[in-house]
Amino acid sequence: MFFGLTIEKVLVIGVIAAILIGPERLPRYAEGLARFTTRAREFVKGARSRVKEEMGDDFDDVDWRKLDPRQYDPRRIIREALLDDAPVPTVTAASTAATMLAAGAAATALTPGQRAEAGPTPFDSEAT
């Protein structure tokens, strides 16, 4: 069913409610529940008709299952958004990072004299 309730649980809740309310007040509460159910059904129908009216002919074309928020995984959404905005392909970025790490390791293996011969350290004005 919904909210983790099964038929058995609903029946147990109904029996307990009938015992607690008592036979004198039970018809009045049943009538109130019926009115509430009718109002809720009318509200849903009204909301559906308003959405259909505002969307026009596109209402029937929408796949409502795709819009179910329970199917979304925030980690997947963020990962896809980050990969979509990547300026270079991920494989190229990974290989570039590996090349830079290898070059950095080679640069740290230089002696101070060799570094002086290599010239000043490159400066990137956009990195700060």
From TrEMBL:
It is a single-pass membrane protein. It is found in: Membrane. Residues 109-128 are annotated as: Disordered. Keywords: Membrane, Protein transport, Translocation, Transmembrane, Transmembrane helix, Transport. It comes from the Bacteria. InterPro entries: TatA/B/E (IPR003369). This is Sec-independent protein translocase protein TatB. It comes from Microbacterium lemovicicum. The lineage of its organism: Bacteria, Bacillati, Actinomycetota, Actinomycetes, Micrococcales.
